[in-house]
Fold each of these.
Amino acid sequence: MRVIGPVHALSCAALVVRVRQQLQRAPHVILDLSSVTCLDPQVAPDLRALHAMAVDCGTHLHIAVENEQVCDRLHRLDLGERVVAGTADAVLAGLARRNG
């Protein structure tokens, strides 16, 4: 799933619904935030909940991010090693190396 622009409380609700739908469909879900320009601190609980849902489903939720400020904010949310600095392609390349 690719997100472009700012992520704020209103847009995050739709994002959560769409990601949640994918969590039971695939062993790996990539949330591509590489084009996100800013991340509202109010969405932190939603992102933590998505991470917890992924763990409960046995799905690996990977988050790709290029904006340094967004990346720092995501790391502070303690989402584990699933936050990758780079694009969704970088996440896919990493998965291919691990499973290769």
Amino acid sequence: MSYRDYIRKIEKLCGEKKGFMVLFKDEYSEEAVSKLYKVFNISRVRPLVRVRKDGLEINIFRTGKIIIKGLEDEDELWSTLDELYSA
């Protein structure tokens, strides 16, 4: 199963800094978030983790939501997610 199957909803962010919010399905949220913890070498599970990568601000929520700021369009989002989940 691909990480894309885990995604429940994607919303474009409004405001000064462009980006996207990605919500994972409840039954896969822990798996989706734990993969990102491994990618960023985060050892402690916290309600919110903020990381920076390639000029992007990535907020990882324990609840199964990630917010990626600094993206202009959905193609950039998919490219970023593909990179993160293939690592």
Amino acid sequence: MEGHGGDPVSLGYQFAREDDARAAASDLDRRFDASELTGLRIYRVRWNNDFIVEAAFPQNTPETRLEDARALLGESGSPVHPDDLTDYKRATQEGGGLPGWVRRLFGS
């Protein structure tokens, strides 16, 4: 499904190794031009030492291009639910605390 509204479409994929996350991000950067891939970031997940690659695309990106990105990221990563990605980013920006999904997981 194509993105709607003015918000970019963000894909998040989790990787166990930093090398895998960096390789996937590098592949995305090579295969998509700047008008297609408007943001690319790697986060280190502090509580389990995994890495999340977030790729942002304009809201009008064709589904076929998003599927290309998902296929590339999915070669060695696993998808992160959009709500979990949002929670992680919010916790990172706030400078601490566990994301809501982690708190819910442990019943806090």
Amino acid sequence: MTSGRIPCINPRCGRTAPAGDDGSGAIICRCCWNKLPQARRDRFNQLRRRERRMLRLAQKRTAPLTARRVEVLTRLLANGATSCWSEIATYFRDGAAPVGLEGFLKEIGL
């Protein structure tokens, strides 16, 4: 891997992306994103929408949001996004359930 590139969080994926100015060291490529279960993708997108909406309302100052409340909400949303991101990374690190005899036996409860 060349310098200035960051790899996809899926260890079996070879895609990279240019390192951004924000300092984040993890990305997920579109192909791997589409492999995630729909529920995890929906939850991550929901948290991002909530954060954008909260920041937009705080900028407009139409909502009664104090600086302290914005700080608390930002921290809560960041914690939610961090936990969601760790679940996504765990999904790729641990892999899906095995297909075959072991998977079948586990499915029927043996």
